[in-house]
Amino acid sequence: MRMSNKPMSVAEFLTEGLPKVPDPPGILLANRYEVLRERSVSSRRGPSPRPPKRKKTDSEGEEGGAEGEDGRFDPNKPFRSMEEEEASFAKAKGIEKWIRETLEGATEEDMNPKLKKVLESIVEWMEITTGVQKTTASVVVDSFAKVASPRKSRDGPRGGREGGGKPAEEVACPEDRAKEERKKKFMNEVREAEKSTLVFRTNMGSVPVMNTETMRKRFTADVTAKAAAVENCQGGRPSPGVISQLDDTLSMITKMEYFGKVTKKATRMNADKVRVEEDFYTIPVKLVFKDKTTREAAEGRLRNLCKISSTTPYHRTLRNAINKIIGESKEKYEGNFIQAKLVPDKMQVKISRRDETKRWFDDVEIIDLPESVLDLSREAGRSPRITENQSGGEEEMLQG
Question: Which of 373, 350, 378, 380 is nearest to 183 (CA)?
Answer without folding.
Answer: 373
